[in-house]
Amino acid sequence: MNRIVFLPVDERFCTRDYFILLSKAAGLDISTPDRKLLGMKKVQPDMNVIHNWLDKNVKTGDYAVLSIDMLVHGGLIPSRMSLDSSDTLEKRLEILKVMKKKDARIYASVCVTRAPFYDSAEEEPDYWEYYGKRIYDYSRELVEKGINIHNDEFELPFTDIPAWIIEDFVARRRRNFKLIQKVIEYVKENRIDFLNLTLDDNSSGSISLFEASLHQKMVDEAGLNGKIMIHAGADESTLTLLSRLLCDLFDVRPKFEVDYVFPEYRDFIPAYEGRPLHESIKSQIESSGGFLCGDRGDILLAVNNPSSREEGMKQVEDDNLRKKYGVFVENCNVRCTVRGYANIRYTNGSDNYFVEKLLLSSPNWDTTNSSGWNTAGNTLGTVCAHSIIQFLIYCGKLKGDSTQLRKLQYIFLMEHWGFQSNVRKSLLEKAWEEKKSKPWSVMAIERWALEFTGDLLKPFSDTISNALKLDVDNFEIYFPWHRSFELAIKID
How far is CA 92 from CA 81, 106, 111, in A? Predict the structure, then answer.
């Protein structure tokens, strides 16, 4: 098959390297910009450099998996913060026309701007540090009162939030909304072959979900439901684009069965999301290139689903769960050709008991995978894409590398289970105890934090490598945004 040109949403390990590693395991030829060209968190890259790179590297007949947020804003965080005008953004979008003249097949993602429910300017404009929660509440009030800021005429309700902040908030949302509507037009005009429209950190009744409903209306009216999927997620979206591209290329639609540890909670709305879980699962499966069936599936999506909104670092002891998970995993391991375990009981980390039972069950990791990181949408998209690629390898459509697949699984388990659910908690506690630091950012103590984290991860590395039958002598780690929230892990 022809080469895949990849433009990630930003330079983080989970948004860039996950894709590269999964592509490598699938035996695919990809080309992607050097990490140094992609900016750094809030720092926008040189957009001319990005566009020149695409113009130079996209050849006739190539496939392209790209983030619109990187293409026009310079990344996910700059999409919330940049001062670029709508005209500038739409002008940057026109490079897709140039790529289409080269007969490129374009699979793209774009994210609805989030409105987080807390006071923090970590990934938002500075005023979010002081007014974030109040802006979020105000945005929900707009939805409740039926005020559509995307109409030409609207009257905002009174608030004691400074007027300039509300003006800026509304202007940014209108700019993002207009851009996405333009991107949908590009799909209608066949300038984009498939679009993942994702919602990052949304909730029921949120302005993000309201705007998504308006986008869905445009999609419905244009008859584009087969070419545009709207669902929760963001960081995983290019992974699902990759599997979707491959399914289109081979004209294969893998059948998914779904089984829940807690089927009575399939309607539960996960944290940071606005729709019932079973709806999100169906959307993620279809975005990835598969479809949901009742039984006799090619792929089993085995879901350790949430019954409440809890964080991975705050797990509680419960021996009954151990027994339940043991029976569930044992039953799942003999079903379907491929099994993907979506470990989403907790946000921002995997369920310890569930991972332990899965590792002890000794599945065939050539046809089994597991993830459990950040939001339910992030994990579900990752597992669906991973499972489809394993299925295509099993069917002989792709020449996969089983060692590379197991290396990727090692990295997922080390980060999602070892770090996010366990070592991170110890890092936060010890940093305060020894360094009097509360390291959301680890910049001031980064060398110490890396050494401390690496030492605590070694037992996890031994356990995981033994279970996966990998010979891992050493691993390297770094904090992608110099903060304790996520970790990058490299092995030879």
Answer: 17, 16, 16
